[in-house]
Each structure stands twice: as structure tokens, then as C-alpha cells.
Design goal:
- The protein is mainly beta.
- It has a single domain, classed as Alpha-ketoglutarate-dependent dioxygenase AlkB-like (Jelly Rolls, Sandwich), CATH 2.60.120.
- The chain is 13% helix and 33% strand.
- A seven-stranded antiparallel sheet has the order 1-2-11-8-13-6-3, covered by helices on one side.
- The longest helix is centred in the N-terminal third of the chain and has 17 residues.
- The radius of gyration is 16 Å and the shape is globular.
- It binds 2-oxoglutaric acid (AKG) and manganese (II) ion.
- The site of manganese (II) ion has 3 residues, from loops.
Amino acid sequence: MTALTLAPGLVYHPGYLDRAAQHGLLAAVREVMRAAPLFTPRMPRTGRPFSVRMTNCGALGWVSDEGGYRYQPTHPDTGAPWPAMPALLVDAWNALARYPHPPEACLVNLYAAGARMGLHQDRDEEDFAAPVVSLSLGDTALFRYGGAERRAPTRSIKLASGDAIVFGGPARLIFHGIDRLLPHSSDLLQEGGRINLTLRRVTCPKKA
Ligand SMILES: O=C(O)CCC(=O)C(=O)O
Ligand SMILES: [Mn+2]
């Protein structure tokens, strides 16, 4: 499938995963969720819950609560290390990131009907040289993106099951979010809803 450059550094890969690959990835993500149960993140300061539930795999996981946004090596509820990143995710990073070091974190977002994610930047990483690689499974979502400043104009595209989007270089710090899901647009997840997998490099690689 051809990749489309939506803005400098923002590359959309529609249908990156075929149906068999989506099923394979879903099975791997279900394993991750068994080992690291979904938790409900909360907004810093207010403690207001997010509408998505989350978990992570990889050496580091992104969490949010009254203490702030951060990466940590353990699950906030169980205290266990995050499960290893499935090979299929590392493969996707290797194919899409064009970055010579492996990802350290994969945030798993589960959107039930009605869940959304407000416009934000991914900026809790030390290393903005690496792109963010995002994969979608299940119901189609309306993905909104703008520029590196919140007030920049925004556009939206639909992210369907199997689509990938990469934001790096000049797009690494773009504002983005999910306005809503298109209910019943995919039958990949029996229970409906959407899973998003966001792969990130967190730390700066050590110089050799
Ligand atoms: O669900 C998505 O497609 C976006 C998720 C996201 O931006 C994030 O987790 O930081
Ligand atoms: Mn994000």
C-alpha cells in the first residue's frame, strides 16, 4: 500500500497490516493485556480519569496520575515489570521508523464506544530524534492533527484497522488527538471499540 505524506514528517500508511497480520497482532496484544491489566489513567493535578484505558509493553511504560505524566518500568497497579514487546511490534518499528535503535515503550490504548483523546503532544520522551509509530486495530477513529503549536489549524483523517501513522522529524511534536470512533466500523474486535498501539523511543541512545 502506498504511503501518503500528510505534512512534512507525518506519514500515513493506510492498510499497513492486512487482516491476517491484524489478527496476529491482536492475539499478541491480548497476551500483553493478560500480563499487564488495563488501568485507567488520571489527569495530573485534577485526577480526572481518561476515557481510554491503557497498558504498556516494552522496557518502559507511559503512565499518568496525580503525580504527572511519566515513563516507568513497572505497572502502576501490580508493580510488575511491563511484558516484553511482541516481535510483530518491533517489526513494524523496524519497517516504518527509519531510526537505528529499538523502541522502548509501546502504549496500548483501548477505546470503548464514546472514548476520545484530547489534542496533545507526545513530549515526555528524552529523545525527539526518533519518530512515534502508531498502529490501529478495530473501529475506525477520527484522528485530528495540527502543527507544533496548539493554535495551528487542524485537519482530520480516519484511521482504520490496520492503518499506521508515523510522526517524526518536523512533525514529531505535532498536536494530535482522537475526536471519536465510528461505531461498528470494524468487526476485528468482538466487543467493538478500538486499540491503538503507540511505539516510542524514550531515552537517548548511548554514544558508542
Ligand atoms: O489513539 C490514537 O490514535 C492516538 C493515541 C495517542 O496519541 C497517544 O496515546 O499519545
Ligand atoms: Mn499522542
